[in-house]
Protein: Arginine deiminase
Amino acid sequence: MVINVKSEIRPLKKVLLHRPGKELENLTPDTLDRLLFDDIPFLEVAQAEHDAFAQILRDNGVEVVYLEDLMADVLNLSDEIRDQFLYQWIKEAGVSTRKQTEKIYQFMLRHNDNKKEMVLKSMEGIVLRELGWKPANASTDSLVDLMNTPDKLIIDPMPNLYFTRDPFACIGNGVSVNRMYSQTRNRETIYGEYIFKYHPDYKDKVDMLYNRYEQYHVEGGDILNLNDKVLAVGVSQRTEPAAVEVLAKNIFSNKNAVIDTILAFDIPVSRAFMHLDTVFTQIDVDKFTVHPGILGPLVVYEIKRGEGSDELAVKKIEEKLETILEKYLGIDKITLIKCGGEDLIAAQREQWNDGSNTLCIAPGKIVTYQRNTVTNKLLREYNVNVLEVPSAELSRGRGGPRCMSMPLVRE
Ligand SMILES: NC(=[NH2+])NCCC[C@H](N)C(=O)O
Structure:
């Protein structure tokens, strides 16, 4: 199976990453909000940290593949696919005039001999100066031309691409290519669309469980494969309950589907808790990290197949999180390890820097951000094997090791 992810913890075999690139250098104070960043990372250091992350994974037997390489393979397949991609990408970036579209298309063709460069450029963004911008004559036929400046981003960067967890998500042997909450991140899902449609490794080999043209938004950070039968989905700032229904129906409509239960975790809507995995990740057969801030307000719903073919059976579960997990996972005792321990200031600070966003690469073996010293120490006291990634710059994007990785295959 080219996609096989039926657990959050079974040994990780193959993972998808994106090495942060010049898209981070096109961030400015004025665009941070819209592009979902809280600060501008220092690219060189962010790349070195990311390389260290990839190396930790390789050293632990994980095959690392890069989004940009898979996408370059797709663009190398044919000129038709390349052109279809380029025109779709230009349109989705909000470029509306024929003149600009052609200019950008021609500009991108300069990278025709090196499709990886073409892909990276599509991620970076483009300013008018690069297109050979010249001031318009004082009287011209276009208000847009007259008002433009050389530093205007005609194509926005996609700085969140290094969070490969979100634009699409592997579920069992299938994949959910997501519709995202924000405009900036919706553009990222184009790569998933092309890879699953055309890449020879994936084409026709993967069950498509959701597509980016659906009406409701759902993001991969909200999707947790608890085991082969139980899927958890966060209902959050990024994922709507209606999207969970569509996903559930798509999963259950396959008669041979192994997943028979979906647990919807209703978490508070806030920037700090944007996805379920920012407050809750599995680290061992019987252990999870959790941000204490969600333990009070958390409500969980059970979704199963309903009576009719296209129906669901949904109910609210009135129990504590530990009890719910024990019941659905069939484990005697579940331990929740609090991010920051009992210290609420540390909990909030370290959650903000993704202390509870861990990537489990085998039961009891996890990758975390080095900067979350309180949580990392606590995890070790529970005998968890903690591998730390340097994280001064990567963390400015508000995502940790789980957000920065999309498992393609687990044992
Ligand atoms: N799975 C995650 N928690 N991803 C975090 C993504 C962070 C990114 N800046 C965003 O706002 O979308």
Observations:
- The pocket of arginine is lined by residues 36, 160, 163, 165-166, 185, 221, 274-275, 277-278, 357, 397-399, 403 (CB under 6 Å).
- The mean pLDDT is 95.
